[in-house]
């Protein structure tokens, strides 16, 4: 009888273990699927900034239309793809307010996140939303209660303004710190949707040619080039789906 009882207990334990492992595998599969969906949403949200991708020449001014305290800087926006995240990197040379930044998107809260590195090496995070052509991001209050704001306004494909502001504790308004007016460095081969080369990774304007199995494609930046080279078949398949969907939509109109 004791042997029988022990056998039953062992069987129950094994069954429980198998059920637990099955639940863990199912949970992991659901988590992976959710993460993949989230990354697709993130990529779609960030694709709204395809017009920023590339190099820029900037002139910063403390006071608008005044050369006093003005400076020149260079910047580049590049797509950045990691196994578990997608973002757009913002690298500044000779900047007075930023050294670098990474723009990402929170699909749960439906807000954009900007993680910045300041010229002195300190970091500051911002969160905000896109209002038409202006991305407005605010930091959490620092230990002194000061809130910082960055506004990125796209005037057109060749002109962008970045405004820096702050609001002190107890104040209800923001005041200007400086503004950088950017002009695109060089020219692009095409604008997104213009009928010219299109980035196979993000759908932006294709400016860099890449090849796979004897066929040529275009990407918009070094980040997309690296992503394509690591997994070309996935991006080619996605591009084919989009092209088929566009043709189907056009034929039904």
Task: Please provide a written account of the structure.
The protein has 2 domains: 47-184, Lipocalin (Beta Barrel), CATH 2.40.128; 188-253, no CATH class. The termini are far apart. It has helices spanning 2-46, 222-230, 232-252; strands at residues 54-61, 71-82, 85-93, 100-106, 111-117, 123-131, 134-139, 147-156, 159-167, 175-184, 208-212, 215-219. With 253 residues, it is α+β, with helices and mostly antiparallel strands. Helix 2 (222-230) packs across helix 3 (232-252). It contains 3 helices and 12 strands.
Features:
253 residues, alpha+beta, Lipocalin, ten-stranded antiparallel β-barrel, two-stranded antiparallel sheet, 3 helices, 30% helix, 38% strand, YHS domain protein, YHS_dom, Ferritin-like_SF, signal, oxidoreductase activity
Task: Describe the secondary-structure layout.
Blueprint: H1 2-46, E1 54-61, E2 71-82, E3 85-93, E4 100-106, E5 111-117, E6 123-131, E7 134-139, E8 147-156, E9 159-167, E10 175-184, E11 208-212, E12 215-219, H2 222-230, H3 232-252
Antiparallel strand pairs: 1-2, 1-10, 2-3, 3-4, 4-5, 5-6, 6-7, 7-8, 8-9, 9-10, 11-12
């Amino acid at each position: 009888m004791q042997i029988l009882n022990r056998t039953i207990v062992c069987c129950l334990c094994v069954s429980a273990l198998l059920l637990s492992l099955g639940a863990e595998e199912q949970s992991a599969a659901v988590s992976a699927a959710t993460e993949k969906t989230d990354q697709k949403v993130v990529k779609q949200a960030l694709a709204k900034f395809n017009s920023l991708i590339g190099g820029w020449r900037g002139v910063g001014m403390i006071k608008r239309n005044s050369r006093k305290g003005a400076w020149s800087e260079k910047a580049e926006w590049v797509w950045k793809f990691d196994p578990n995240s997608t973002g757009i990197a913002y690298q500044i040379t000779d900047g007075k307010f930023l050294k670098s930044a990474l723009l990402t998107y929170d699909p749960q809260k439906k807000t954009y996140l900007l993680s910045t590195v300041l010229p002195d090496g300190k970091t500051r995070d911002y969160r905000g939303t896109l209002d038409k052509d202006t991305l407005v991001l605010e930091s959490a209050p620092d230990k002194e209660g000061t809130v910082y704001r960055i506004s990125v306004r796209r005037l057109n494909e060749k002109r962008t303004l970045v405004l820096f502001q702050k609001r002190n504790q107890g104040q209800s308004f923001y005041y200007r710190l400086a503004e950088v007016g950017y002009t695109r460095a060089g020219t692009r081969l095409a604008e997104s949707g213009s009928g010219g080369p299109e980035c196979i990774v993000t759908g932006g304007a294709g400016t860099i040619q890449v090849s796979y199995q004897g066929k040529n494609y275009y990407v918009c930046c070094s980040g997309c080039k690296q992503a394509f080279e690591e997994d070309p078949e996935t991006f080619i398949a996605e591009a084919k789906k989009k092209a088929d969907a566009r043709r189907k939509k056009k034929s039904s109109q």
